[in-house]
Structure formats: C-alpha cells, structure tokens
Amino acid sequence: METQLDPMKDDLPLMANTSYMLVKHYVLDLDVDFKGKVIEGSIVLFFETGSQYRKTSSAGKECCQSQFDETCEMRVSEPCHIPMINVSTCSSKTEYNDFAVSGKEEEATSDENSNHSNNEQASGISSSKDHCDIENHGNKDFLLVLDCCDLSVLKVEEVDVAAVSGTEKFTGSAKLTGVSQELENLRNQIVHELVTLPVDRWKEQLYYFAHCSQAPGCGELLFSIGTWSLEIRKSGIQTPADFPHAIRIWYKTKPEGRSVTWTTDQSGRPCVYTMGSPINNRALFPCQEPPIALSTWQASVRTAAGFVVLMSGENSAEPVQLQEGIFSWYYYVSMPMPASTFTIAVGCWQEVKQQSFKQTAAIETNTEFSLPSSQTDFRWHEEVCDHVEYPCRFQNPDARLQAVIPYRVFAPWCLMESCEEYLLRLIPQCLSAAYATLGTHPFSRLDVLIVPSNFSSLGMASPHIIFLSQSVLPGGSHLCGTRLCHEIAHAWFGLAIGARDWTEEWISEGFATFLEDIFWARAQQQLSHDEIKGQQELKALLRWRRLRDEVQNSEEELQVLRPKKESTGELSESGASVVKYGLKAEKIFMQVHYLKGYFLLRSLARTLGEVSYLASLRKFVLRFHGQLVLSQDFLNMLLEDIPKQKESGLTVESIFQNWLDTSGIPKPLLEEGETWKECQLVEQVSAEVTKWTQTNQRIRKSSKKKMKQDEVVFQQLLPDQLVLLLESLLEEKTLCPRILQCLERTYQLREQDAEVSH
After folding, report:
1. What superkingdom does the record give (predicted)?
2. What's the CATH class of domain 349-354+383-554+590-678?
C-alpha cells in the first residue's frame, strides 16, 4: 500500500479501505482558533461493514485476511503512536449544542518515531512492546485505513454507544451481560440499526447520532500515521465485522495543512475556508475520500463572537452563545455525499440584503419541507428513485414546484455594495433558468459567499453553498451571471450526480460549462432566438481558441478525459485507488476537461436536436440523481433514448475513441472549427480588428502626424466580443502605444469585467 505511493509523484492516493468498512455518518465537534491557525476537536465516525467482507463466504474471509496480511507486510509508517494526553470523555447530555471538550489535549512531546504506551488499566491497551510488534502480531489484526494528511492525531477511541439512553430499542432482545465480546457485538448492532433506520426517521437518526457521539469512550485504539493515511486497529480484532463501528478521533489541523487556507478578507479581517484543494478534505478531518463512501454528517463549530460560520449543510444555522464571547454553529445534511463535498468558511462575513429588492419568483417559499406522509405523495414521479434512501427533493411535491430556492449572499463589509448592484438580482434569475431547464433543485437552499482575494478560481460549488471570486463583481452583469449559472449547474452535475471515478472530471465540468450557456440564455430578459444563438456561437469560438492553445502547450497525457480508459472506476480489493495526475501541478490550471467536455455535449446536442437532447438530460437527472456515474452511464442512456442516433452512426465506442480516450483536438471538432466565423457577432469583431490593424499601420508609418479622432468610427462590443478582439490584436507583431491608449479610451477597458481585463 503506502510504500508503493510516492507523494512527490503525480497521482493522488485514495487510501481508505472502503471495501471492508464504509463510513455512513460523521459527527464533527470543532473549535476554530485564529490565533494559532488551527481547527481542533473531535470527529466520530459511524461505520457499516463493507461490501467486500459482507459478500464473502468463509473461503472469502481467507481472501480478505490475506489482504490484511499484505497490508501489514507492505506498509512502512510510524510505529503505533498513542500519545500521553489528558482528554476528558464527555458523557451523554440532553442538548447537542451544550457539548464541549472539558479537557485540553496535549501532543506528545517526544519524537514522532518513538513508541508510546498508555496505562493498561486506563485504556485497556497492551504495552508498547506488544502493540508495536507488527512482525509477530500485526498481521493478525484488522487495519482500518482512513485518508489523512497534515493532521496531528491525538487519540483514537471506541465509543460506548450502548451507554446512551434510548439506544436499547435498537438492540431488540439482546441484553447486557458484561461479557466483553457481547458488549462489542451489542455496540455494533446499535450502530447497524442506527445507520439503517428508514428514511422517514431521519430526524430521529440525527438525534441519536448526536447523542451517541457524546457517549463516553470505552477503550483507546492503536493507530499509526503515514504520509497519506491514518491506520487504526484494535488488538485481537481480526475482521471488519468485529471491529468497533463507532470510533472517536481527537485531532488538530496544522497551520500549513492543504485543505483549508488561513488568510484575511478584503476588509482585513481574519478568515479560514476550504478552497478546493487537490487533496480535498483529508487535512481538515480524517475521512474516507473515495467517492463510493457516500455519507451524511452533522457538525458543531465554535468560534469567537463576530465570526460567521458558513457550511455546506442543508439548514441555515443560527449562532448559539455558549459563554461570553464564544458562539456555536450547528449544521447537518441528510443526503449522503462524498466527504470531498464538505465545505466550511469562517470569517466576519456580512449578509447582503436589499430592502427594496423583491424576488420575482411567485412560488418561492422559505419554509422547510417535511417528508411525504404517505405513498400517494410520490405520484409526482413515475419511478421510485434508484439511489440509497434519503429525504429526496425529487419525491417532494412542494420541492418540485420551487423554481427559486431560498438564498442568501455573504461578503466582506467593503464588497456589500458591489454585491447589491448585480449579484442579488441575478441569483433568482439564474436559479429560475436552471429550474426551467432541468427541473427540481437537488438542494433546499443556497448561500453565496464572496471569498478572499487569494481564491484561485472564479467560483466553486458545494452542496447548499457557492464560493465566488471578487473578480466576478465589477464590469457589469455578464461575467457574474455566467459564472453563477456555471456553479448552479454543478448542483445537478458534480454534486447530485457525481463521477464514480474522479479522473472523469468532464462529467462535472463539461456539463456545467455546457449548461452555463443554456441557463444564461434563459436568465437574460427579452433576447431573441438569433441573439441567443449568436452569443453561444461566439462563446464556442472563444472556447475553441482556448482549447487549441491549451492542446498546443500542455502534455498529451493531461489532455485525455478518460485517462484510465477501460480501467476507469476500478478499485483494488480493499477499495483503495489513485486519482491519476491528481497532484500534477499544471493540471490545476488546465481547462481541457471543461472545454472538451463542453464540445462533446454541444456536438451531441447539434446531432440529436437540442429539444430532444435537453429532454434526455432531464431524464438522466431523474434517473441518476443521488448516485455516482461513469461516462458510459450517460452515453448509453442518451443513445438508447434517442432513435435518431442510429442514423448518425453514433456509438459509445466511437465517442470514447474520438472524444474521451485520446489527446488533442477531437476529429469531429476539427471539422466544425471554421463554421463559427460565419456568426454575425464574430463578423462584427473581424471588421473591428481590421479597422484597428489598419489604424495601427497608419500610425506607425506616419508617427509624426496626429490621428484625427473622427477618422475611424469603432463599434461598441459585448464583453465576449471584446475578449475576441483583444485576443486577435495580440496576434499582431507590434501594436504602438497610441493604439493601446485608444483601445482603453474607446472601450473603457478598466471598467470592463475580469475576463476582458485579463
């Protein structure tokens, strides 16, 4: 395992052995310390025995055990590290928000590679000589492997869920007898019953998850930390079924951890947020990173007064004062999603409100939806959803009528006025356009946050929250609106429907780029069909030029949308895998998966007809929301759904060959390239380019003569036309300074949006 993975290489390892144990729910209880730039506290993980172990017979158990043996023989990491710490265990309390760590954790001060042992009577753990003798004993014990990086793990313990009042109803006829093995089985039975409660009891489930997370510890567990993983075992436990199914991990983040960034906002106030790191959230909390580990979570986050905690939870949290100067914020989700979608932003954000601003959607509501009370409420949807059970909005008649979900906007104080100017007005228009295109919004609410200036992208979408760069605010509504549409599209493609293999980024970014144009066309008022078509053709040409330049200036291996080809989606026996090129530095700045994905979807729409194509997209959303997919899931459904594809000769294999499995510009796209020049908006730009180049030549030939202001009349251009104009002029060998000054005056370039400025 870990010895085969070089952190300096290009691939991102997903270490968690999800085939043996699968996390179903996280409970985080954290303090945000801006002075020390750390987030510290505990996380409780609730597990189910994994599919690999459940499906095997007694012969299969031997197979699984051989994998455990291989793991222990191959890994080279620190000796089992049980630091000497003083963490008081928390007893079960009636109110979740009252939970607080009553002791202060201390990291062990001795060398990381030295061995530690705790008092046997206190922890029930054998001495270091016994528990660190991997050679003789390690291969007998099951190892739970979690994804972890840049974290200080202080303590790992089993949680005594049987001590929580009310959990006895989950144990059936079983009774406590005091025998250790029976107690262990009882605890695991309680967790199993809890994680498998029916969907109409989700609120009760959250209640018991919260209370079980506060239960006392009942024995420390052995652990070791590697470069990319946290490995946990319990002495004498050899199978996943017998391993504790509820564990608590006490830990701290590190200031240099790569999952969050500590910075100041545009008003100079401190803040911290998840910025979309290539390593995802493993430096924020120990977790199972593979997409297959779909889980729910709840989190209580404490911070000083004056700070606002925003998270990807489905509730709009209100702060609760715990003591003078300390407030707690509580969020939860009931829809299982990968741990990578967890998002947090803590800062002195201000909510942007406009008293005179009226939302135009007649059917918007700010009420929370209750679950359907009877089977008849499912009449809105012919088919039962195919995903694991959760309170699904696609089965909720009220949610299905909600064109605009409740939304809020947050920003640093100095940017509030800029947000009022365009952003507040655009959100309901873009949400309504998305609903008109794809139907039911997968998530019940939306926060939009203008993040600090060190944010390296224009936007990032997570469940219930979108981060936007300050760069989208100036220069009119165009860039702000298109980027907002792109991030809103991720609610369906990237979040509600996720890629089963992270190397297939195009499933998220290609769809969002394609739908960005569809949404924005509908969000703009009073545009004719020809105007919409013209804008989209112009955008296609700009993207074509960007793709052409990227293909010419990047490594071929990074241009392939399905780099693992036939192996896409495959996992090792334990569930571990790698994200190919996931750590390659230049890949972060590439847009090939956006652009080639967009052109593939655009080509399909042109071949099959946009009306039929969009109807198929809606059908795909209804069928696959709440699930993970591969490219062929979409392509098979699309081509089976539209008989016209038989005439066009389209097959999944030909699409793989032409679009997904090869580098460079796809052949079908090469044949289409010249057609965009016939677009009227493009022809206008071409005419303006000719004027500017001729003027440039005249000035260079007669530099002593002044150019009269009325010699040439230049046309006003749309933002995307300006981008094309400037790109075209940059291809000229020389532009004299007077032309640059004239360009600035003619188009007021300093007042244009970020893409024009760039």
Report:
1. Eukaryota
2. mainly alpha
